[in-house]
Amino acid sequence: MHLLRTSAAAGFVCAVLLVVNVLRRAGVLPENAVTHAIAPFAALTGLFAITGLYLLIRDAAGGLGLAGYLLNAAGLAGAFAIEYTLHFVFPGLGRATVSGLLAGGTGMAFLVTSVVLVTGVLAFAAAAVRSGALPYAAVGLYALGMIPGSLRNAVPEFVYLGGLVVAAAGIAWMAGRLWTAVEHRTVPVH
After folding, report:
1. Residue 190 maps to a domain
2. Cβ contacts of residue 110 below 8 Å, gap of 6+?
3. What residue numbers bound the domain in which 131 lies?
4. Domain total of the chain
5. Over the stretch 148-190, which tens digit does the pLDDT of each residue have?
6. How far is Cα 144 from Cα 159, in angstroms, rounded to an integer?
């Protein structure tokens, strides 16, 4: 399968996983071993998707596109690590230990990751709009959703969850564009 198609498929999976995570956190889906096990993979599949999206826009995106991609990718990698920690490490620790970690370096790392992700999303979105290769509305949904979606502890829960749903819509839409770019052979692969 072509690299861009694989990235597009990852984008579709990312969007589905984001919605599943929202439904789990909202109590619509159960909190169980399966829903916790798949939770971190929304960020990981998002990382694969953003790579394909960058390949689609890179020729027109310039330095801003590269900087946005690198920051967005670093933020998504960090988000994967955070989600993994929240679902597989923290549950095995006592409340006092978790609170101590969050009050120290771990909490600071989580905050830095959020700032890197928001910065990367905004830079990538600006470059994507400038490139004209992705639907503006899809890019806007991604950026508008990822801002609160990146700020889990800084915004109310409903804003965070709503942001994830909006981001999922933008990701799915951009993944669709990535999929059709391959069909129309509009993207040179270097």
Report:
1. no
2. 82, 102, 153
3. 3-183
4. 1
5. 999 888 889 999 999 999 999 999 999 999 999 866 554 444 3
6. 11
